[in-house]
Design goal:
- The protein is 0% helix and 51% strand.
- The chain has no helices and eleven strands.
- The mean pLDDT is 97.
- With 119 residues, it is an all-beta fold.
- The strands form two sheets. Strands 2, 4, 5, 6, 9, 10 and 11 form a seven-stranded mixed beta sheet that branches. The protein has a four-stranded antiparallel beta sheet with strand order 1-3-8-7, with no helix packed on it.
């Protein structure tokens, strides 16, 4: 069975740091681009960061310079290092895996992990 299990979300103070992890299983992790999305109450889910199968990264402007996405194919895990956290970063963070080669596209989603930035 396909699984994406996020962990690491918690309550953190503004200016603090947090590292989220997403453990993948049930598919060929190295063949999938990985992304982190987030969704705050009443808002649409937005792309935070992505990393391709070759390791190229992309970030939302709102997190550029503060967040870093990385992947460890040997561990089937993708990470999101979050520094200088702001209250506006409060959201449920979701892990996403995408296979998009040829004419097909496959998406997998995790259940999400809550990040709350507050004093």
């Amino acid at each position: 069975q396909v699984q994406l299990v996020e962990s690491g979300g918690t309550l953190v103070q503004p200016g603090g740091s947090l590292r989220l992890s997403c453990a993948a299983s049930g598919f060929t992790f190295s063949s999938y681009a990985m992304s982190w999305y987030r969704q705050a109450p009443g808002k649409e889910r937005e792309l935070v960061a992505s990393i391709t199968i070759l390791g190229r990264t992309n970030y939302a402007d709102s997190v550029k310079g503060r967040f870093t996405i990385s992947r460890d194919n040997a561990k089937n895990t993708v990470y999101l290092q979050m520094n200088s956290l702001k209250p506006e970063d409060t959201a449920v963070y979701y892990c996403n895996a995408v296979y998009a080669m040829g004419s097909s596209r496959t998406d997998y989603w995790g259940q999400g992990t809550q990040v709350t930035v507050s004093s």
